[in-house]
């Protein structure tokens, strides 16, 4: 083990120890006391919203507008939401009169929760884990992505002022293979909530198996949008451009396969490309910009390579990468920018239609029947989110029920109610998070029987 590895191990060890020591006091506070502290933390982040948004945009490459309107407001909302929801859970009770028994359940926090988050929505996703974990009375060791740690650091500085006792929230900064894995393998961390790639989740599953840890895994997607010929294209097209390219396409819920019914295929393509070309790529600090920089040089190369592969397979790039000029301001010439790219005539078996690209690239293909499109939409290893566009109420219900997808939006995208389960099926994840689901994940249930 080299020096850096030893330091990381030491930090994880110290963080778990602090979390373990803080657990008895934190877990014995009432939900109301914990709720008040979460609300205070939300207020403090909201007070510094602009500073957080600037930092998130600079660190990640996302546009300042996205950071201001989505990332940081949602981080604030995460704390407020779980501060409220923790006050409203009820446990179950049944009676067995013939046996003279009453049964009921009680729930208690589990202990030290290990929380691991990715780089695409840094503070948004980290707080989506920290808030429910501590609301339920657990203490945490959280590891943000090594690519985007700045806002996690800024949040740590507000903990004391919010009244979070020392040791309740511990953040370790470091690479996944070292800090993340040390947390996953630590015997005193009984549960891991992870958001990231399917590949890393496989490794976490293997490494945690000897300890029988409880896992929540929120993973990648290859999300379809299905557009029937009776869809309201005036609503559908701008929303599908947004669902394809928001945050540079670096959202697990982004659309990357668009199935369009043949009767409207040509019209859709024309209007979709026109709308995509309205999206401006450039300096993330400029509030008029829609597409910022990708996370890294390596990731940009990876995303560009998908476009090259599609072209080599005979697909047509209708706009964006390699087709249109990318004019960047002088200060951004060396940045990792890429135009939103639309590809047509891609085969279903192509890697562009099967693998998660996680960049500003979307594929558009025609379909004929409902039966066919359901089969093709389900024909990938992932099952995170899908979008269905149609004016036929019966059809949207029918299709939604048959899609292998943890979330289905019809005639909209990314409208979330945090009360309801969030998560994916197949290779997109195990478990769900949300008001009731997070409460169940972050607590241990016990069934108690009383004979009278
Ligand atoms: P990643 O899997 O590379 O990293 C995620 C986190 O895991 C990082 O903090 C990383 O340091 C850590 N990590 C890496 N190796 C580890 C190991 N061996 N043990 C423990 N931790 C380890 O993912 P990424 O590239 O940061 O994020 C992009 C991926 O996240 C995409 O696949 C995207 O779809 C997915 N994602 C999913 C959701 C969802 O809610 N389903 C949300 C956002 C992102």
UniProtKB/TrEMBL annotation:
GO terms for biological process: retinoic acid metabolic process. Residues 5-448 form the Aldehyde dehydrogenase domain. It is found in: Cytoplasm. Its main location: cytoplasm. The active site is at residue 218. InterPro entries: Ald_DH/histidinol_DH, Ald_DH_C, Ald_DH_CS_CYS, Ald_DH_CS_GLU, Ald_DH_N, Aldehyde_DH_dom. Keywords: Cytoplasm, NAD, Oxidoreductase. It catalyses: 2-aminomuconate 6-semialdehyde + NAD(+) + H2O = (2Z,4E)-2-aminomuconate + NADH + 2 H(+). It comes from the Eukaryota. Pathway: Amino-acid degradation; L-kynurenine degradation. Its EC number is 1.2.1.32. One of its GO terms (molecular function) is retinal dehydrogenase (NAD+) activity. Pfam families: Aldedh. One of its GO terms (cellular component) is cytoplasm. Catalyzes the NAD-dependent oxidation of 2-aminomuconic semialdehyde of the kynurenine metabolic pathway in L-tryptophan degradation. Belongs to the aldehyde dehydrogenase family. This is 2-aminomuconic semialdehyde dehydrogenase. It comes from Ficedula albicollis. The gene is ALDH8A1.
């Amino acid at each position: 083990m080299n020096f850096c590895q030893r330091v990381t191990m030491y930090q994880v060890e110290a963080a778990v120890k602090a979390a373990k020591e803080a657990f008895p006091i934190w877990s014995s506070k009432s939900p109301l006391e914990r709720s008040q502290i979460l609300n205070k933390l939300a207020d403090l982040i909201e007070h510094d919203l602009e500073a957080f948004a600037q930092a998130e945009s600079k660190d990640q490459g996302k546009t300042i507008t996205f950071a201001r309107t989505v990332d940081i407001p949602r981080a604030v909302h995460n704390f407020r939401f779980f501060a409220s929801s923790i006050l409203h859970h009820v446990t179950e009770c049944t009676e067995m009169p013939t046996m003279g028994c009453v049964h009921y359940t009680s729930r208690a926090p589990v202990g030290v929760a290990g929380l691991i988050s990715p780089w695409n929505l840094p503070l948004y996703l980290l707080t989506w884990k920290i808030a429910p974990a501590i609301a339920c009375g657990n203490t945490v060791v959280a590891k943000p992505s090594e690519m985007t740690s700045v806002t996690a650091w800024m949040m740590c500085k507000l903990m004391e002022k919010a009244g979070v006792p020392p040791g309740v929230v511990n953040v370790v900064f470091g690479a996944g293979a070292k800090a993340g894995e040390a947390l996953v393998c630590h015997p005193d961390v009984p549960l891991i909530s992870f958001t990231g790639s399917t590949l890393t989740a496989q490794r976490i599953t293997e490494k945690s198996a000897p300890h029988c840890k409880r896992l929540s895994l929120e993973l990648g997607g290859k999300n379809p949008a299905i557009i029937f010929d009776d869809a309201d294209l005036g609503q559908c097209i701008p929303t599908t451009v947004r669902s394809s390219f928001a945050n540079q396409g670096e959202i697990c819920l982004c659309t990357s396969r668009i199935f369009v019914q043949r009767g409207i295929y040509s019209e859709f393509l024309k209007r979709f490309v026109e709308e995509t070309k309205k999206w401006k790529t450039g300096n993330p600090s400029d509030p008029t910009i829609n597409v910022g920089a990708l996370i890294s040089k390596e990731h940009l190369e990876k995303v560009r390579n998908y476009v090259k592969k599609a072209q080599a397979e005979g697909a047509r790039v209708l706009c964006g990468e390699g087709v249109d000029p990318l004019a960047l301001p002088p200060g951004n010439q060396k940045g990792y920018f890429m135009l939103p790219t639309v590809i047509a005539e891609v085969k279903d078996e192509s890697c562009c239609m099967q693998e998660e690209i996680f960049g500003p690239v979307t594929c558009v293909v025609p379909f004929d029947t409902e039966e066919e499109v359901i089969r093709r939409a389900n024909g990938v290893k992932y099952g995170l989110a899908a979008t269905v566009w149609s004016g036929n109420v019966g059809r949207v219900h029918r299709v939604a029920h048959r899609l292998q997808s943890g979330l289905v939006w019809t005639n909209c995208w990314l409208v979330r109610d945090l009360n309801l389960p969030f998560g994916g099926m197949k290779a997109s994840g195990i478990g769900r998070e949300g008001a009731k689901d997070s409460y169940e994940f972050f607590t241990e249930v016990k069934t108690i029987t009383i004979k009278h």
